[in-house]
Design goal:
The structure holds 2 protein chains of 2 kinds. By secondary structure, chain A is of the alpha+beta class. Chain A is built from 9 helices and 20 strands. Helix content of chain A is 25%, strand content 33%. A 6-stranded mixed β-sheet of chain A has the order 6-7-8-3-9-10, sandwiched between helices. Chain A is elongated and about 80 Å long. Chain B is globular and about 65 Å long. The N terminus of chain B is likely disordered. Classes of the chains: A alpha+beta, B mainly alpha. At the A-B interface, strand 6 and helix 4 of A face helix 9 and helix 10 of B.
Chain lengths: 358, 282
């Protein structure tokens, strides 16, 4: 089922949680809502679910397969909702938790006992937790609880699956395993799914499409590749991974950052405007000073070589921190030492020029 | 200290002061509760079995027991229902005057019971504001077992409300949202999700209200009329025995009352333990 969000605004007192947000989610996709806390991603998810209302503007709509569901309550929208802290029914067994949505149906459409038993059995198999149906949530690990919560949501055969920071309360290792499992699960059942996360790695790894949000607005919508390699603005680039930020100015139609001079991106740019140069740590190179490379002069302050890459921290003359990542191979060929004066130059970078000065 | 084998009492706990607190608790309980109560049994034991038997099988005494337990159970049950409603309203909704209503709940705790008894009698008497309607409807609300139950309901209400409030505040709103998203209506959500979560607190409140009602004296004697065989409660019968210098008879009734309350409370606690079995930290 496709989801369309049209011009949704939500305010809590003076705080604008969502500011005229519109979003299209195609049928069968797994979409991540990614953003820092307070960006409105959870609010948007709850509005899609019907757990939260939105400000009543005339052109605000939520459409499921073209049908306006804004007036339907959460129970009638047939959404499966998974909460960050599981929200399992503590006094019910795993079986009773999963069967809950089937047992509370009105008598006419309620499945028989044996049908319920069968369906719960299927779901237990799906979440790979057969044999624990008589345990209580308190007897399960965090990862198991979240899988039970997912099975409970899937039991009602939802048209849409909504997950609010589903792995947020789990430790790093479990989290990694569970998100890969979610991806495989989605490939199996193909229900339109939206999940909220503040972890860019999680969004890029799991989702078909990533929606980057900030301060109640959508900054960019795109595939993981698009948002990572062609970020629409400085916020998206900064949020999707570590970035070095250099401030410069537009001078004579060019973006100038100390010794580095670049052609600006296409579009109207005015001299004197602030320009920002964003470079990912693995796109910076370190050269010895005085061997002819143009770049920013800096001094190495810290080298950390434990890990998949060598992380080097430098300080520029104006005492700004710069982070560089080198492969171990490259570091072995040309080692550096703390205190060494060097020149750093970007191999690849993006320049964003502010449209107007403030 | 043994390193293996049977668990030892001398095992070191991280929290210091176990010996001190246990010793203090035992001493305190002994001085305040156990020694006075055992004195009751010692005094009873000085009487002949015949005397005890005659005292306890006196129809007047038996009637008092029936009324005390019955009215206390009825009052606690009424409080469980309406106390839940009051606690629900106080926790779930915001409305003007909420704090004042919240404070009203504690009044039965604070008032001298004789004051409550006189106030209740004035209102529920044949000519009282409410009593005249009840009398007209054929329900005499004073000098009757209804009057006894009324007084016991009044003094028991705070116990239910005050034990339920924290339990209701503790409910996770996400759990209700989960139930709603799974298609449960309000009634199903309450019956299957909320009620099981607050049931232990409700039982505790019920038990406290019941225990309090069993021992209540001051407020009841004003409204009950104290008619032999009809509206005499057990505490009143004990006081009457004392006034007749029948100390062993009084202690025999008191001891019987004690055993009965203990058994009842134990049974309710057992029920509570049984329902709380599955509750554990999230």
């Amino acid at each position: 089922m496709s989801i369309q969000v049209r011009n949704i605004t939500k305010t809590f007192g003076n705080f604008v949680a969502l500011d005229r947000v519109s979003l299209d989610i195609p049928d069968g996709e797994l979409v991540a809502l990614l953003g820092p806390s307070g960006s409105g991603k959870t609010t948007l998810l709850r509005i899609i679910a019907g757990l939260e209302g939105f400000d009543p503007y005339e052109d605000s709509e939520i459409l499921f397969d073209g049908q306006n569901v804004a007036r339907q309550n959460v129970g009638r929208r047939k959404v499966g909702f998974v909460f960050q802290h599981y929200a399992l029914f503590r006094h019910m067994t795993v079986f009773e938790n999963i069967a809950f949505g089937l047992r509370v149906r009105p008598r006419g459409s309620r499945p028989t006992r044996s049908q319920i038993r069968e369906r719960v059995g299927e779901l237990l198999e799906l979440i790979q937790l057969e044999g624990i149906e008589n345990r209580y949530p308190a007897q399960l690990s965090g990862g198991q609880r979240q899988r039970v919560a997912l099975a409970r949501a899937l039991a009602i055969q939802p048209q849409v699956l909504l997950l609010d920071e589903p792995f947020g309360a789990l430790d790093a290792k479990v989290r990694l395993g569970l998100r890969r499992w979610l991806r495989r699960l989605h490939d199996e059942i193909h229900v339109t799914s939206v999940f909220v996360t503040h972890d860019q790695e999680e969004a890029l790894e799991v989702a078909d499409r990533v929606v980057v949000m900030n301060q109640g607005r959508i900054e960019q919508v795109g595939t993981p590749d698009e948002v990572f390699h062609q970020p629409a603005n400085a916020f998206v680039m900064d949020f999707l991974g570590n970035v070095n930020l250099f401030r410069g100015r537009m001078e004579a139609g060019r973006a100038v950052f100390g010794a580095l001079v670049f052609e600006p991106p296409p579009g109207a740019v005015i001299d004197g405007n602030t320009a920002r140069l964003l470079v990912r740590p693995h796109d910076l190179e370190i050269h010895a000073r005085g061997d002819g490379h143009v770049g920013l002069e800096a001094r190495i302050t810290r080298i950390q070589s434990a890990g998949p890459v060598v992380k080097i921290e430098l300080a520029t003359d104006s005492n700004e921190s710069v982070f560089v990542e080198l492969s171990h191979e490259r570091f072995r060929q040309r080692p550096h030492a703390v205190g060494e004066s060097v020149v750093v130059a970007p191999r690849d970078s993006r320049i964003f020029v502010e449209e107007y000065t403030i | 200290m043994t390193l293996s084998g049977a668990p030892s009492l001398k095992r070191r706990s991280v929290l210091p002061g176990f010996g001190l607190t246990l010793g203090y608790a035992v001493l305190y309980l002994s001085l305040i509760v156990l020694i006075p109560l055992s004195a009751l049994f010692f005094k009873t034991a000085t009487a002949s079995w015949d005397h005890i038997g005659r005292t306890l099988s006196d129809p007047r005494v038996l009637n008092a027991f029936r009324l005390s337990v019955g009215a206390s159970l009825a009052a606690a049950a009424v409080n469980a229902v309406f106390g839940l409603a009051v606690a629900w309203m106080l926790v779930r909704y915001r409305f003007p005057g909420k704090r004042i209503i919240d404070a009203f709940v504690d009044l039965p705790f604070a008032l001298p019971t004789a004051v409550s008894g006189i106030a209740l009698t004035a209102v529920y008497d044949q000519n009282g504001w409410i009593g005249r309607w009840l009398y007209a409807a054929g329900m005499p609300s004073t000098n009757s077992s209804l009057g006894v139950a009324l007084a016991l309901t009044f003094i028991g209400l705070p116990f239910v409300v005050r034990t339920l409030q924290p339990a209701l505040e503790d409910l996770d709103p996400e759990v209700e949202e989960a139930a709603a998203s799974l298609g449960a209506g309000r009634l199903s959500t309450f019956l299957y999700v909320i009620f099981p979560a607050i049931r232990p607190a409700l039982l505790t409140g019920f038990t406290l209200a019941f225990a309090r009602a069993l021992g209540e004296y001051g407020s009841v004697i004003f409204i009950a009329g104290n008619m032999p065989m009809k509206t005499e409660i057990v505490p009143l019968v004990i006081v009457m025995k004392l006034e007749q210098y029948d100390y062993t008879g009084a202690t025999a009734i008191a001891a019987a009352m004690l055993v009965l309350s203990f058994v009842l409370l134990l049974a309710i606690n057992g029920l509570q333990w049984w329902t709380a079995r599955h509750r554990a930290a999230r």
